[in-house]
């Protein structure tokens, strides 16, 4: 249906006077009259009844007025959404998330949703391996991963560095210390997050312990840092976890800064397909760069 005719029809229907509608549309009256007559022919029904004071809508005209307003609104929205999509300001972003990764990114997500309110975010709970497969299958656009992935076709964008802290039972003799050195917990069993392709957090923890002069005694290997903290609360040992897990505040768990000879932190990365040219992805990566905390 011709949008121009519909706009002209709505103007006449709202003014109930062809002359006033013509002035509103900045056009002469005779062409407007002809366009309304063409529209009536297209509809196969009279839309107006002519009166001495102007025109009145027929029943068919009243129905068309409601439909025309809806159609014009939908067309306007479609045009605007298309324009916004072309600018990367609308669309959908499918995100693979896992465990403690989500504890690190709320500020980033809040900043993005405020800057791009018309982009729909869809979250999918996936471990490291599942995130990778979903990216290759194009079921997701991005994922989040500590330490990143050095794999063909996958790119990494650093989000932030996250210091590691020691999670330990509140009853531990070291629980009152302001900080803890790794060598001081060498005899404790370790609960270690270890999942997905190597290297992972298990490798990083092992390297730190070796630097401190001991091999950790692993009591449990778990999927993520959230589970590790829960097992620390249950008395299974101590764990090195990203500082963001501090927010969990579980009973019987305290978190202590790690006193180490060098900064002990892990980088959270946003992972995505190298060949993805999505403008929404580009906007998200720009938001990471703008909000990055190094």
TrEMBL record:
Domain HTH lysR-type intervals: 1-58
Lineage of producing organism: Bacteria, Pseudomonadati, Pseudomonadota, Alphaproteobacteria, Hyphomicrobiales
Protein name: LysR family transcriptional regulator
Keywords of the record: DNA-binding, Transcription, Transcription regulation
Keyword Transport: no
Native organism: Enterovirga rhinocerotis
Molecular function, one GO term: DNA-binding transcription factor activity
Any one of the GO CC terms: protein-DNA complex
Pfam families linked: HTH_1, LysR_substrate
InterPro entries linked: LysR_HTH_N, LysR_subst-bd, WH-like_DNA-bd_sf, WH_DNA-bd_sf
Record-stated family: Belongs to the LysR transcriptional regulatory family.
């Amino acid at each position: 249906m011709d949008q121009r005719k519909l706009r002209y029809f709505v103007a006449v229907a709202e003014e109930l006077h062809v002359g006033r509608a013509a002035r509103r549309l900045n056009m002469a009256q005779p062409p407007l009259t002809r366009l309304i007559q063409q529209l009536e022919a297209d509809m196969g029904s009279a839309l107006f009844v002519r009166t001495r004071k102007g025109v009145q809508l027929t029943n068919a005209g009243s129905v068309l007025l409601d439909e025309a307003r809806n159609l014009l609104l939908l067309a306007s929205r479609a045009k605007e959404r298309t324009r916004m999509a072309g600018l990367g300001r609308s669309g959908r972003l499918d995100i693979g998330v896992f465990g403690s990764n989500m504890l690190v990114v709320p500020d980033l997500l809040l900043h993005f949703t405020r800057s791009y309110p018309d982009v729909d975010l869809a979250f999918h709970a996936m471990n490291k391996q599942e995130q990778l497969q979903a990216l290759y299958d194009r079921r997701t656009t991005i994922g989040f991963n500590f330490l990143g992935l050095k794999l063909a076709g996958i790119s990494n964008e650093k989000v932030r560095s996250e210091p590691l802290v020691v999670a330990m039972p509140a009853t531990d003799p070291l629980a009152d210390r302001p900080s803890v050195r790794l060598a001081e917990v060498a005899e404790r069993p370790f609960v270690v997050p270890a999942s997905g392709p190597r290297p992972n957090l298990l490798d990083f923890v092992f390297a730190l312990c070796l630097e401190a002069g001991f091999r950790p005694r692993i009591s449990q290997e778990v999927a993520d840092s959230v589970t590790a903290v829960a097992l620390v609360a249950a008395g299974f040992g101590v764990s090195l976890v990203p500082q963001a897990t501090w927010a969990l505040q579980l009973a019987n768990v305290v978190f202590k800064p790690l006193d180490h000879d060098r900064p002990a932190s892990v980088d959270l990365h946003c992972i995505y397909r190298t060949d993805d040219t999505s403008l929404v992805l580009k906007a998200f990566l720009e938001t990471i760069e703008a909000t990055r905390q190094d």
